[in-house]
Write a structure and sequence with these properties.
Layout lengths: L9 H4 L21 E5 L5 H9 L12 H11 L3 E6 L5 E5 L2 E5 L10 H22 L3 E5 L18 E5 L13 H16 L1 E6 L2 H11 L6 E3 L6 H4 L13 E6 L8 H14 L4 E6 L5 H10 L6 E4 L5 H10 L2 E4 L11 H8 L4 E4 L4 H4 L4 E4 L4 H13 L1 H14 L10 H11 L4
Parallel strand pairs: 1-2, 1-5, 2-4, 5-6, 6-7, 7-8, 9-10, 9-12, 10-11, 12-13, 13-14
Antiparallel strand pairs: 3-4
Length: 430
């Protein structure tokens, strides 16, 4: 099934500002610089900014780092910044008046059951302590940092919270109706309805989920897009000729069961039985199931069809890997709460059609360039690859559809930094 079409002003239409949030007393005068605290995800923020400070080239990544987008946008506005990551290696770096810290999670976070939730609570209290020590005037917090309801504690100290959602509350189409996860969503709704000064989401699906749990959120909602380096993607050659065999299928991303990587083994077996030698597969990434996947390739005797490799080491390797593919695939299963799937965007920026499942919200924002299959439908995914390999008209139409979508993901006015500045303005803090 093709993605549904959207108009050119789609992302602008995702900005929703309640009437009571549209006017603030501070709009009549330029507000003073703020002390902004931002708790980001698990990336090595301290190492990244230390390398930038010391003139060391950072490790290669295709997207522009969200933390860098934030830092550049807010530093330019004169704000004082404290950026905190949950990376496992503790470190603190100073850049002039700004601080970047890696604050590892407590050990119980990595346990199962109630201990995991206690770990989230403990970490939430730790970031609150850091924010208070910094005398933060605004807190920005990424999804996954702690349970959203824990952030209601910031209200006790009159610190407004802007929520940044990179992950969905549930896998699209699989909202839980009972159990612990359902109870968590009840508290999520309370947070967004009563405490969140604003919410900033990476996909329209996430914004709809906020509305679903909160009814009428307290603050405005915004949608941003990941940004990429145009100069890098311009280096990627066109796909190999459609008629050339083998037909190359590329998976990029986390090597985890719930990302559908083991389903690719079944697909490879099926298509090779039908057309021996006509398909090749690459699975590129890191994750807890990397060794298990390598073992599965050996067990099924698929080494001549499927190559499993670690993350692309540098830009040249990335150009070669992306340029190898005829098509990209994002086979996420229903167990994973996909927020967007940036690898789907990367396939489109490389000029490749993308096969994805119904729990991948990127399909909605990449119309005319994707084929969507129900989650967990291995036969459907197999059929989509088969169809793209055998139907050149469809393949070329989807490939042509990638072109119109690409400028959005190079536009800094649609990135996270610009979106957070809009949110700050909407709540009267910028």
């Amino acid at each position: 099934m093709m993605g549904m079409p959207i108009g050119p002003n789609f992302f602008e239409a995702q900005v929703v500002i309640p009437p009571e949030a549209r006017e603030t007393p501070s709009e009549s005068a330029d507000p003073a610089p703020q002390r902004i605290f931002y708790a980001v995800g698990p990336g090595d923020a301290a190492g990244y900014f230390r390398n930038r400070r010391d003139g060391v080239a950072p490790a290669f990544h295709t997207p522009i780092a969200f933390s860098l987008q934030f830092f550049k946008a807010f530093e330019k506005q004169g704000h004082r910044l404290y950026l905190l990551s949950s990376h496992a290696r503790a470190e603190r770096v100073t850049l002039g008046p700004h601080t970047i810290e890696n604050l590892p999670r407590p050990r119980i976070y990595f346990c199962g059951g109630i201990r995991h939730h206690l770990g989230l609570l403990v970490y939430g209290l730790r970031i609150l302590s850091r924010a208070l020590r910094f005398r933060a005037q605004v807190a920005i917090v990424d999804s996954g940092t702690t349970h959203w309801i824990v952030l209601a504690l910031f209200a006790l100290f009159r610190i407004p919270v802007i929520a940044v959602l990179h992950n969905a509350l549930w896998a699209a189409g699989y909202r839980p109706t009972h159990g612990v996860r359902h109870l968590i969503h009840i508290t999520d709704g309370w947070f967004f309805r009563r405490f969140a000064a604003a919410s900033v989401a990476v996909s329209p699906e996430i914004r709809r989920q906020i509305l679903a749990v909160a009814g009428q959120p307290k603050g405005p909602q915004f949608v941003f897009v990941p940004l990429y380096r145009k100069d890098f993607f311009l280096r990627i050659p066109p796909p190999p000729p459609h008629s050339r065999r083998p037909f190359n299928v590329l998976y990029l991303g986390r090597v985890e069961y719930y990302k559908g990587i083991f389903d690719l083994m079944t697909m490879a077996e099926t298509l090779d039985r039908e057309a021996p030698g006509d398909y090749r597969w690459k699975i590129v990434g890191e994750g807890s199931d990397f060794a298990a996947l390598e073992a599965e390739v050996l067990r099924r005797n698929l080494g001549h069809l499927v190559r499993v490799q670690h993350n692309m080491a540098d830009e040249d390797a990335a150009v070669a890997t992306l340029g190898w593919a005829h098509v990209n695939i994002v086979p996420t299963r229903h167990e994973f709460r996909e927020g967007l799937a940036m690898t789907a965007v990367e396939g489109v920026l490389a000029g490749r059609p993308v096969v994805l499942t119904s729990v991948v919200p990127a399909g909605e924002v990449l119309p005319g360039a994707t084929v969507e299959v129900p989650a967990d439908d291995v036969e459907g995914l197999t059929g989509a690859i088969r169809q793209l390999a055998n139907d050149e008209e469809l393949y070329q139409r989807l490939r042509a559809g990638t072109t119109a979508l690409q400028p959005t993901f190079y536009d800094p006015t649609r990135g996270l930094g610009a979106c957070l500045l809009q949110a700050m303005k909407a709540i009267g803090r910028a």
